[in-house]
Design goal:
5-stranded antiparallel beta sheet; 2 helices; 6% helix; globular
Length: 373
């Protein structure tokens, strides 16, 4: 998924897989397991859903941390400095060991574990050159870059046996995995617009899921595998839609008017969940598959309109909402950036990215907390 990391940085998103699934469904821990990586940080009084928060990374830009199926590891992207490109790492939650698993070349984004936890997937540009591709945003508002060099790769947990599973011209990435069937959902521009597709772990049987003008992407399966939640562009008018199409030709997406949407796994029943006119993204289903946890800056935009403080638009928080769009509840209250939530396979913990407790302004780190519902 393309996405926002630190509010001051441009972001990207998710990746894909190989070899047939070797286990059906999530692998829940069979022995007692305690998260020892990182260190405890103070809980926020208003964040009643989060308890015993731990900070897991401590420097640079870290985002899009996603759980292994057994709940013992996280895979995420890390950038050490503004001049570096994102690379993919695995964090052992018991020991705190962090290991580079991408090639260290090009630019990578949004990784995920395949079923069985024997292989991983991620988006990468390394096959187009050792240096990361460069696209300069226009400087007119909040923008993400969708590098045309991205393809989806799978590998063993140590990065060996690297396999490329997409090879169409243009952007292919933002892949996540169905916990029931092992199928991959991903975003691609192969048909001229950014749409959602599914495929098997070896890249076969590609099927188009969405078919509407404008961006659709960043999709996640529900825990029962029957539904998808994603983010979709809803430009204000025809002029904005035309400008969005022109920006896509420059490998740029403007996320300032994206809403959370849902559909069945075959694309039927597509409908809008949020309708706040803000930048809404990084949705994930709650363990009961009835609600959606997502990131949005709509409260920040409200503050900007009240006070004239344009920096408030960079304040992203996590929100809960029912699938029918009712019951909105704010989950995080840090006055900067909170995003990329994902529940652990057993539903006991939530991992997310945040600017809180940053060593330097704008740094984003990974946090984990017990989830209180």
């Amino acid at each position: 998924m393309i996405a926002t990391r630190a509010p001051l940085a441009l972001l990207s998103l998710v990746a894909a897989c190989a070899s047939p699934p070797e286990a059906a469904g999530p692998l829940l821990p069979t022995t007692p397991f305690e998260i020892r990586a990182g260190k405890p940080v103070p809980d926020q009084p208003l964040e009643k859903h989060l308890r015993n928060v731990r900070q897991l990374t401590f420097h640079g830009e870290n985002a899009e941390a996603y759980w292994s199926n057994d709940g013992r590891k996280l895979i995420y992207q890390h950038r050490a400095s503004p001049t570096d490109a994102d690379q993919i790492y695995i964090l052992d939650l018991a020991t705190g060991e962090q290991r580079l698993v991408s090639t260290g070349k090009g630019r990578t984004t949004c990784a995920y574990f395949l079923q069985g936890d024997r292989r991983i997937l991620f988006g990468s540009t390394h096959h187009h050159g050792d240096q990361p591709p460069v696209v300069k945003p226009t400087g007119r508002g909040y923008q993400w870059v969708v590098h045309q060099e991205y393809d989806i790769f799978t590998a063993n947990l140590d990065g060996s046996d690297l396999r490329q599973i997409t090879d169409t011209p243009g952007y292919d990435t933002e892949a996540t995995v169905c916990p029931v069937t092992g199928a991959i959902v991903f975003t691609s521009v192969r048909d001229g617009d950014l749409e959602v597709y599914t495929m098997e772990p070896d890249g076969s049987n590609v099927r188009r899921i969405t078919n509407r003008p404008g961006y659709d992407g960043g999709a996640f399966f529900s825990h029962d595998g029957s539904k998808l939640v994603l983010r979709s562009a809803f430009p204000r008018d025809a002029a904005m839609a035309a400008e969005d199409a022109a920006l896509l030709g420059q490998q740029i997406v403007r996320p300032s008017h994206m809403e959370i949407t849902v559909c069945k796994r075959d694309g039927s029943g597509f409908r809008q969940v949020t309708n706040n006119g803000a930048a809404n993204f990084a949705p994930f289903w709650t363990p009961d598959d009835r609600r959606i946890l997502f990131a949005s800056n709509f409260r920040g935009l409200e503050e900007m309109q009240r006070t004239g403080n344009h920096a408030a638009a960079r304040n992203f928080d996590l929100f809960l909402i029912q699938e029918d769009g009712t019951g909105l509840e704010q989950v995080t209250h840090h006055p900067d950036f909170d995003s990329f939530p994902m529940f652990s396979p057993d539903g006991r913990h939530l991992v997310f990215a945040s600017n809180r407790h940053a060593a330097k302004p704008g740094e984003t780190n990974i946090f984990v907390a017990e989830w209180i519902d």
